[in-house]
Model the fold of this input.
Amino acid sequence: MTEFWIGFKEDIFCGRTPDGKVSFHSLEELQTAESDPNGKVITLCLMEEQEFSLGMLSPLLVVGNLQQVLTNHGGKTTVHIVRHHGREVRVQRTSLSTRGHRIKHYVMELHIDPQSKLLQTAQVVARDAGGAIVAAGHITFDYPQSGPQDIYDLGVPLEARIVNNTTDRCGP
Done:
């Protein structure tokens, strides 16, 4: 499972991948810190402003864009209230069936807290003509008071060696 944290007030974006790679991006400093899976080295480099799209800074925008694509291609949306873990949840389900394509049916389900209006989960499933799942995704949204402030908050050891490449741009 890949984890992402976005700090809108702090202008940060960070993540941890299943292989253990950790990255911490600061928009204010236009700097990236990355750690290898064994956590012994932190590499610092500069990032370009255009590296960060609005989609990366807003998971809601990613979900909204996907819903817009489904709707633009004829997808239909239904809304209903269900009880989940003892609480009421608004479920917004957008589905689209296609003809002549490998994937025949797409479904995106959003679970929204009806009181706070905050998105709790987003699930996407694509099935082929035989009904087999060919793609699936699940996003859980949390809204903590604070999140990681630096790469060490993501589990990188304090004794990790720092390689400062801030005179270079990130990437290949």
